[in-house]
TrEMBL record:
Name of the featured protein: ABC transporter permease
Assigned keywords, A-Z: Cell membrane, Membrane, Transmembrane, Transmembrane helix, Transport
Residue intervals of the ABC transmembrane type-1 domain: 115-345
Keyword Transport attributed: yes
Family the UniProt entry places it in: Belongs to the binding-protein-dependent transport system permease family.
Compartmental location: Cell membrane
Membrane-topology annotation of the record: Multi-pass membrane protein
Spans traversing the lipid bilayer: 27-48, 121-142, 154-175, 222-241, 324-348
Main localization category: membrane
Classification via InterPro entries: BPD_transp_1_N (IPR045621), MetI-like (IPR000515), MetI-like_sf (IPR035906)
Length: 355
């Protein structure tokens, strides 16, 4: 082995060691954050105003003290708060989130249906939004100050200004009620059977089971929620991509690449977008987490049985365990997404590993 090869080998080993240390620190931080999320979500359900027993039983049944006592004993509401928290943590470690007062079903089963429903919308919305935003944002940056740039900026400003629930109602009225191009509400039509559960994404599950009728029906129902969420997300990402690309275009290495006469496509992909990737990645993670957290108003317009709808129903009925479960899932979503973004940071930029 030559001296040059030995130096390269040492640098590779050192880089791998730094990456492992970086990932270990991020994993430990994520575990601490998860415990904090459990503590905060449980505490919020304790201090929330209102009586969950009265909300669950109603005025008539809650006037019977024996019924109230039995209800409190069933759901552990008659025990001190510290004991309830310790029992809750112990159940969590076994994968038990408790039983919902609203549905009477295990909360884990309810969330297993609600999270994939929201996840399917969020996944397609973020993919479409990112693809469109990169094209529009890069185009606007290269046409800085010109007509194309001004048009993109005005369109994205309108997209940010229009309330999502109003856009959802408008799209519902136009594309479903008037034009009949797509289906209006729910995940599938009443005449279509749900697919065998594989991923929880109906479009993917229908495709894996070779059911084209179910696939196109699920796609038709998915179109409007994805469209509404994509419009707002595209507006946000496009403005951020434009800003990030403009910063890179003013850097010396981007100017040098253009001065060499390299093809525009190679400069954009190999230099500009690569240099702007880290800040864009951060915003994509935040946007994806927000979509996965549940979009209550959009889901309400399209009768979409997702996480937002489940959270709203649980809050309305003061279903404390269900609210805690939703808060825990939302917290886990953001922790996992931030962890993935941090890992990608460490892989793409070795300097981050040293921070």
């Amino acid at each position: 082995m030559t001296e040059t090869q030995a130096i390269a080998t040492r640098k590779t080993v050192q880089s791998q060691h730094q990456l492992r240390r970086f990932l270990s620190r991020r994993l430990i931080t994520s575990v601490i954050l998860l415990f904090g999320i459990v503590l905060v979500t449980f505490s919020l359900t304790v201090i929330v105003p209102g009586d969950p027993v009265r909300a669950a039983l109603g005025e008539g049944a809650s006037s019977n003290q024996a019924t109230v006592n039995a209800f409190r004993q069933k759901y552990g509401l008659d025990e001190p708060v510290p004991i309830r928290f310790l029992k809750y943590v112990g159940n969590l470690l076994r994968g038990d989130l408790g039983t919902s007062m609203t549905t009477g079903q295990p909360i884990s089963s309810d969330l297993a249906k609600a999270v994939p429903a929201t996840g399917e919308v969020a996944f397609y919305a973020i993919i479409i939004s990112l693809a469109v935003a990169i094209v529009l944002g890069t185009f606007a940056a290269y046409r800085r100050g010109k007509v194309g740039d001004q048009v993109v900026r005005v369109v994205t400003l309108i997209g940010l200004s229009v309330p999502t629930f109003w856009m959802a109602i408008l799209c519902y009225q136009l594309f479903f009620m008037n034009l009949h191009w797509v289906s209006g509400s729910g995940r599938i039509s009443p005449t279509i059977n749900p697919p065998p559960h594989i991923t929880g994404f109906y479009t993917i599950d229908y495709m894996l089971n070779g059911d084209p009728v179910g696939f196109f029906d699920a796609t038709s129902h998915l179109a409007l929620p994805v469209l509404v969420l994509s419009l707002f997300t595209i507006a946000t990402l496009t403005r951020f991509v434009r800003t990030s690309v403009l910063e890179v275009l003013d850097m010396d290495y981007a100017r040098a690449a253009r001065a060499k006469g390299l093809p525009t496509r190679r400069v954009v992909v190999g230099y500009v977008l690569r240099g702007a990737a880290l800040p864009i990645l951060t915003l994509v993670g935040i946007a994806f987490g927000s979509l996965l957290s549940g979009t209550v108003l959009v889901e309400a317009v399209f009768a979409w049985p997702g996480l937002g709808t489940y959270a709203y129903n649980a809050s309305k009925n003061l279903d404390l365990l269900a609210v805690t479960g939703v808060g825990l899932v939302v917290g886990i979503i953001f922790v996992v997404i931030n962890l993935i973004v941090d890992i990608l940071y460490g892989v793409l930029d070795p300097r981050v590993r040293l921070s």
